[in-house]
Design goal:
Helices cover 50% and strands 12% of the residues. It has 251 residues and is of the alpha/beta class. It has two domains: 13-151, 3-Layer(aba) Sandwich (Rossmann fold); 166-249. Strands 3-2-1-4-5-6 form a six-stranded parallel β-sheet. The N and C termini lie far apart (65 Å).
């Protein structure tokens, strides 16, 4: 008989410390989705570096997002006080750093779950062993394994996810209307160029055309996808497209 997961299904307040790197945060979104699915009635609090809170703002993963930084001599103690104010019953630690585990330990959170690595195992109440392999473990698999251990989630939808907020979507619609841009025609242009097809073409069109709203996210997505040859070709014309849109908007 398998043992129950460290984070029980009846947990009412869960803290998740998110990865600090943009790519890692995106790869962790399947785990965040699994946590929401497994604990539908819980208050889930996300603690993350400033900037990551904006990246994940459109997702339904969190009831509260705390944007803060662990840097500095007293960083872990300061953040631990922030955590204690929320009184979480359990915490799920996604970063691999010792400082993030120290922060949780100082907060006194009863259940602290994370990977046992970098000498921080004693700071956690439930330690998930790192599987040693000949090649690096993909981050999606790395976080899925932690979700299975911590939440008892047998299967994880592996698709990463990002979304815009309602305010961003409304502003995007306003900008497109003012510029009199036909998104369907723009997507067709990308497809005729042979750059992208289907939903991906529409997604790229949206990102480029509403750059005034989503520029910070576009920069992050560039970092994630810059290895795609066709995307590099498209981004070369990005500055010209921004200037054209700004001219249409009278900016």
């Amino acid at each position: 008989m398998s043992s129950p997961p460290p984070i029980a299904p009846d947990t009412e307040r869960l803290l998740i410390i998110c990865p600090s790197w943009v790519g890692d945060a995106v790869m962790a979104t399947p785990l965040l989705r699994a946590a929401r699915t497994r604990l539908p009635g819980a208050r889930i609090i996300g603690l993350m570096r400033p900037g990551i809170d904006e990246l994940l703002a459109g997702l339904p993963s969190f009831d509260e997002r705390i944007a803060t930084d662990l840097r500095g001599l007293f960083g872990p103690a300061r953040v631990a006080r922030e955590i204690r104010r929320r009184c979480p019953q359990a915490a799920l630690l996604l970063p691999n750093s010792f400082r993030s585990a120290l922060c949780l330990w100082l907060s006194g959170t009863p259940t602290r779950v994370g990977y046992d690595r970098d000498g921080r195992g004693r700071l956690l109440t439930h330690r998930h062993a790192v599987v040693r392999a000949d090649r690096p473990t993909p981050l999606l698999d790395y976080y899925a394994s932690l979700a299975t251990f911590a939440l008892g989630a047998a299967e994880i939808d592996p698709r990463p996810q990002l979304a815009v907020t309602e305010a961003e979507a409304a502003e995007a619609e306003r900008l497109l209307a003012v510029a009199q841009v036909n998104l369907v025609d723009t997507t067709a242009v990308f497809e005729n160029w042979g750059l992208f097809s289907g939903g991906f073409a529409a997604a790229i069109a949206i990102l480029l055309l509403i750059d005034a709203v989503l520029l910070p996210r576009l920069v992050r997505i560039r970092l994630l996808l810059v290895g795609h040859r066709r995307l590099r070709l498209l981004l070369r014309g990005h500055r010209a497209l921004r200037l054209q849109l700004a001219d249409q908007l009278g900016a």
